[in-house]
Each structure stands twice: as C-alpha cells, then as structure tokens.
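ARCHIVE RECORD
Type: protein–small molecule complex
Small molecule: 3'-deoxy-guanosine-5'-triphosphate
Source of inputs: curated submission
Record status: active
Notes field left blank by submitter.
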Amino acid sequence: MERSRKPHILVVDDHEDNVELLRARLEARGYEVEGAVDGQAALDQVDKQVPDLILLDVMMPKIDGMEVARRLKARMANKELPFIPIIMQTALDTTEHKVEGLGAGAIDYITKPINFAELEARVSSQLHLKKLQSELEARDKELSELNDKLRQISLTDGLTQVENRRSLEERLHDMWSHSVRLHEPIALVMCDIDKFKNVNDQYGHQAGDAVLKEFAQLLKGEAREIDRVGRYGGEEFLLILPGTVLDAAVTFAERLREKVEGHTFTYTGGTLKRTMSCGVAASPHPKVKDQEALLKASDDALYVAKETGRNRVIRFDGADFNAHMQSKGNDSADGQTKVSTPGTNTGGTAAPGAPPKVKASAEGPRASA
Ligand code: GH3
Ligand code: MG
Ligand code: MG
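STRUCTURE (tokenized, with ligand):
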C-alpha cells in the first residue's frame, strides 16, 4: 500500500442500500470505496483492482460471503493475490458463524446492524496491520536480496569476476555427488598460465591483472553453459566439466591450450603472448575414488605438464604422465602420486626443443552436452 494514495475498500453486500450507506460513511473518512452486490461481482472486482480491505457480507444469494472468503484465501495462500484483510459483516451473531467466518479467511467480523464507530475502528486497525506487514515484507525482501548479493560476492573472484576457489569447491562437491548418483562421468581441467611471473616482472602487475582477466574470459568463452570455470589460485584456473569423459576432456583442454597460444593479450601499453599448461583427470577412473582424488589427479597432471616443458596438456594416468612419474621414481598406481614443484624451465611461449605436445584424443564427443 503506497503512502500517497487513499486506502481502497471493497464493500460487498447484496443490499445495494447497505453498500451505498457504507460507501458514504467510509468516503467521508477518506477511503476510496468500490461496491459489489454479489459474490461473483466481488471476485470480479478483486481481479480488476486488488483492494486494501474487504467488508464482506456473509448472507448473499449464489456465492455467499464464506465462499468468497474461501476462494480469496486460497489465492492469497498461493501468492496469486497479496494479503487482503477481510472483515465479515454478519447478522448471525453466533459463535459458530464467527468461527466459520474466521476459518474461511476473514480476519475480523462485525455484526449487523453495524455500529459505524466500531466498524471504523476495526477497518483502521486492520489497514494499519496490513501496512506494517507490507513494510515487514518489503524489508524481508530487501534483506534476502542483500543476502543473495553477499553470497554472490563471496563466491566470485574480485579481479576476474569468475567463480573463486570456494565456489569451485562447493560446485565440485555437488557435481561429484550428482555424477556418482546418476553414474555420469565428470572431468576436471586444471590450467596454469606459463611463466606468468614474467608478465608482472616485465610489464608490471597491472598488465598481469589484465592478462588474468582476459584469460578468465577466454576460458569462459570456450566452456559450455553447464561447465564451471573459476580461478583456483593466483594464475591457476579450474574447469569442471559434468557429463564429460577423460578423452573428451583432453580434446577440450587441447583446444583451449591452442586457443590461448594463439591469443594476443592486451594491457594498457601493449600486447603480449602467453601459453598455458593443463592437467586433465576424470571419473570414472580406477585410480579416482573420490572428489579429492579427482582434484589431486588433475593437479598432478598439471605439474607433469609443467615439468615436461609447459604449453602442454597432460592426461592423468596417460602414457606421458606415467613415463614421467616413473622417471621420477613415483608410481601413480596407488593414487598417491607425489610430484615435485616445477623447477626452472623455458619461458611462456613454446620453447624450441620443448617436448612434443600431447596429441589429444579426438575420440568420444563430450557426452550429454
Ligand atoms: P609456471 O610456468 O611454473 O607456472 O611459472 P609462473 O611464473 O606462472 O608461476 P609462479 O608460481 O612462479 O608465479 C605465479 C605468479 O603469479 C606470482 C604472482 O605474483 C602472480 N600472481 C598471482 N596472483 C596475481 C594477481 O592477482 N595479479 C597479478 N598481477 N599477479 C598475480
Ligand atoms: Mg604459472
Ligand atoms: Mg601457479
């Protein structure tokens, strides 16, 4: 109810004289009044203009006041209508009738013949309650919107505006459970920009920030609507690909890697090129038992990509992965792979003599796109 306009009251009575009498009284008190002389007319009038309050006669032919109240109450309950206080006017001053009226959806009642002072007091108190309730609802809505906004902020990376690590972990948890329940595959692609520190060192931190933002958008642009793309850490990004088997995820990651390699990043003052390395893992896989193992598998594959030359896609438990693990004296067979952090290596762009890139398998389109 807006403060500026007059409260709107619908008076329903099958005796037109009664309607007119109440109209005159209420209009004199500053209310705007509509009249209806039967139940159907009352319901039609509510459809035309929702009143702030209804004064409803009980005894009417065809659709009586009880039925009107019941129908309106049902529509209020399913939010088709806002809350409208209904005051029953009844000649039947028995407890049963009052109880029935209140049960049907009336908030108050007044007995005929009507005492106008009493009527006015009841109308004004119900309108006051309705106003308080509307204000409360508005505040509730505002608070809930603010809460949604806060939650959104708490799940978004401030710099790149993609999901942050917390959000990714929440999503992975949900998506993992979903994939287990429905026996659907799920894949992770862990991406890390190669030699990103050099960007900061050579072009400044702001250029680094610009590259991160553009990089995030590039990944997002390549992902499907149902995929999740987020910043897992500094210059490390994670993609969660539901319904995707390992082969398909490797193909996808390879496409991403090529895209990044071919992309020219822009920062204030110039442009630069960069490459990225990816680790890919998926479930179902005999060595991936839970979501932590899946995350670790993609991370381990990423580190192998770094150690074996960067600008590469490495598939967890694939030939390159296992060869490297063996050369390191590690065996991934127990699912507890240990990989040292990458040492010094060649720069961001593909170095001459770097190991050949993983040939991504083209088999198997990404399932359930
Ligand atoms: P590698 O190829 O092994 O991944 O080398 P790298 O230089 O990319 O990795 P390293 O971990 O040595 O350095 C990461 C750098 O990312 C260091 C850090 O200052 C920078 N960084 C992390 N977060 C941000 C950020 O928000 N903005 C900028 N500009 N730099 C960031
Ligand atoms: Mg890096
Ligand atoms: Mg890193």
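CURATOR ANNOTATION: Confidence is low (pLDDT under 50) at residues 333-365.
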